[in-house]
Amino acid sequence: MIESLAVNSNVTVLRERLTRFLANHANWKIPLRSTLGRIQENSWRAVIFGGVLRDLVVFGNTEIPRDIDVVISDANTRDLEAAFGDLILSKNRFGGFRLRSAGWLIDMWALGNTWAFRERLRETISFESLVHTTFLNVEAIAAEIQVQPGHPRTIYSAGFFESLNDKVLDINFEPNPNPDLCIVRSITMALRLNWSISRRLGTYIVEHASSIPLERLTAIQESHYGKVRIRQTRMLEYFEFIDRQLQVRSSDAIKLPATEGEQLALWKYWSPTC
């Protein structure tokens, strides 16, 4: 009962904070509102997905996100290119486009192009299924952009709110074409949030890390974050620590031994929605 109340409370928090975020008429949000307005002009159903929503719940409206994931259900890649062609910066790894609208970076793609749907790993292509395709539980969250008057904003979740209560990073959907990126993001996310990692996630990290060169994980950080956040020797120490914890007969989640300096460095250089 207590957990249910906490989940309901966080759903309310997300709705309120996202509404403020989208409705705020500050000048720096004009490019974002203009870009999202094109979705409404085309009468497309769309959701904001993943990181921005996570940070709105965990950190509130104090941070300024510059990178937003938007998924559209009733449009294809050609439709998106026609509607947003003047904003396209590049193609993205989601089968859609990275848009630049003034200072905002928006990754936008058609729902059916989501990797798990393309590979037929999920039978139903829907927003309800979309949240079951993220690697991590803390990203398994989506919220509709356009709201019908008099109706609450629809929220889609697959263990996201439960993860907020437990503060344990876990695998939501294991199949993934980029296990190297999954490892890097899992370690950095656990450190940034100061959460533990599940033993299942720890096992995934150790098993895949054994076949991936540390140089590759460094390159992944540079490509994904624009800088190296965890040096190779420290990354190896984390892998060895996780491996040792897994050898202990226990059901407890694993808390990485981050130093205060590492925490400060991650906060200082973190792009909020990564």
Tag the structure with descriptive keywords:
alpha+beta; globular; 12 helices; 9 strands; Beta Polymerase, domain 2
How would you describe this structure to a colleague?
The chain is 47% helix and 14% strand. The protein is of the alpha+beta class. The protein folds into two domains: 165 residues, Beta Polymerase, domain 2; 92 residues, no CATH class. It has a seven-stranded mixed sheet with strand order 3-4-5-2-1-6-7. Strands 8-9 form a two-stranded parallel sheet. The longest helix has 22 residues. The protein starts with a helix and ends in a 5-residue tail after the last helix. The C terminus is likely disordered.
> What's the number of domains?
2
Order of helices and strands: HHEHEHEEEHHEEHEHEHHHH
Kindly provide the name of the CATH class of the largest domain.
Answer: Alpha Beta
Question: CATH topology of the largest domain, anyone?
Answer: Beta Polymerase, domain 2
CATH architecture of the largest domain: 2-Layer Sandwich
Report helical residue fraction. 40-55%
Low-pLDDT ranges? 268-274
CA radius of gyration is 19 Å
Number of helices: 12
**What is the total tally of β strands?**
9
Average residue-wise pLDDT:
90
* General form: globular
Helix/strand/pairing category: alpha+beta
